[in-house]
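fyi for ur records
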Amino acid sequence: TNGNADYAMASSMQCGVMAWWRAMYPRLRTVGMHWHPWDEVGMMMRASSFASRQIMKLPLMPVDQGLRHLEQELTAGLPDAQVVFTDGTYQRWLGSLFAEADAIESKDHSVTAGQPQNEAEVYPLIDSVDHLVTGQEVSVHAVFDPTREPFLVGHRFRDRPLLPFVISLEMLAEAARLCEGAGQFCGFDNVEIVSGLKFVHDQPQAVRTSVTKHAGELSAQVLSDFRNRKGAVLQRDRLHVRGQVVCGDTQQIENSVVSNEKPPTDWSDVEYPAEREEVIYHGPLFRRLTGARRIDGVGWMRIVAGQVSEVAGDRNHRGWVLSPAVLDACFFGCGLLEWIDSQNVVAIPSGIRRLRFLKQPSPGEVCVQRIIKTGRVEDKATFDFILMNSKGETILSAEGFEALVLEGTGVVTS
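which gave:
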């Protein structure tokens, strides 16, 4: 009816406005809840709705079940901008009207769209899905406030927030998992930093991630609109990072540690430069590298895993694919090895040929990184490294990590 159409359009508009407001201000938690018809209370109990119940033969949702759904969403911190609670009756009814019942997957149990069935369905660095064709392509975006996001406040280049490489990788991984809809994330191939994303003003900025699947390969990009200090757009869709995301790879990480090679037991302490003293600044949340040694040309780094909440801040603490601070410490360790060799230099990530993950470390776990420098051509240095957990198991493997070497004070070991 015209009345129901107006009601539906108004609800859609209201949810859209709330989702936009939520994206602009990530600390704000709004949600639009689309409910299956309630029993005992609500609109379906009106006499005017009796005909609709008879025609569609709708089973009604018990009040206690609806309250449980509401409590679960609130307890989870409202991770999604919109959620749908239904048992599939509407889908089956519409399918019968349009003779498409065979194309609609029928489910006998209740499905809660906004209540993820596992952590893989939560995407902390996706604020909005702009376009999605599962198994083919996806375009999403997040709005980052450089004055509030811990990974921006604590990661600065020439005293301005710079999007960390590890956060770009997390964005690529989350978007790829959303695109695939299933399958296990394994790592990355041929990732390149095309241009760093530096926040030249303190206004929130939208950053987009796109993934396209072609011939079984997931090609991903991180883009944004480049703006001047006044906020005017100077270049649309500026490319920052590109590469391939690997999901469902059965290839195992090879343990490249020589059998008779043992990590050191005594370490030199690592002192990070203070804020404003260095070209690139790492805040406390990224200072996970606590010890270093160089033995016979091999770099050894001691890395202590932190809590994901330190990086997430106001964002969802669930659903993180990577351990960003640990991976950043691995990249930093490569730069530290270059500093030990060359002195007075700073190494900034510029890309990586192959990166594979087996598992993530637990908070507080002490890990050991083993680094081999494979080359230095002009201002580019390359490294291979692995990361071992407290049990000595290889949990991360990297080949062809490339860093841009700049003049700077760097870190101090003692």
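DSSP finds eight helices and 20 strands in the chain. thats all i got for now
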